[in-house]
Amino acid sequence: QNGKDAQKLNAQFGTMKATDSCQGDQTACINSQFAQCVSGKWVLQACPASLSCVALPDLQKAGTSINCEDKNVAAAAINSCGVSGGLTGDGSVTPAASSAAASS
Beta-carbon neighbour count of residue 33 at 10 Å? Predict the structure, then answer.
């Protein structure tokens, strides 16, 4: 279930914008950046070079985490949970609407 939950979150992150409202201490990924809710607004923090913000399945217990990670490593972590479809469930290793540059 954790793999499917991570895919669902990554798909949702692809539709989010920095101008969207948020509540409490929510965290998310917006434009491949780590986003934290502060006073009802998203504050974005860029990931280190070559990493993207993604939801990952917890491999120890029920749940997910949001971290900066290599997209291929993240997809492999989701696959290790027995689900297919990459980061978002559609076979992609790039979250929808990602601003990350294409790798060659």
Answer: 19
Output the pTM of the full model.
0.84
Q: Given phi > 0 = left and psi -120 to 50 = alpha, else beta, which region is 3?
A: alpha
DSSP class per residue in 39-94:
TTEEEEEPPPTT-EEEEEE-SSSS-EEEEEE-HHHHHHHHHTTT--SBTTSSSBSS
Positions in the chain whose pLDDT score sits under 50: 96-104
State the pLDDT at residue 99.
38
Given this model, what pLDDT does residue 93 score?
63
Distance, in Å, from the CA atom of 104 to the CA atom of 82, rounded to the nearest integer, reads 28
The CA distance from 85 to 60, in Å, is 21
- Greatest CA separation found in the chain? 39
Q: Identify the DSSP state of 101.
A: P
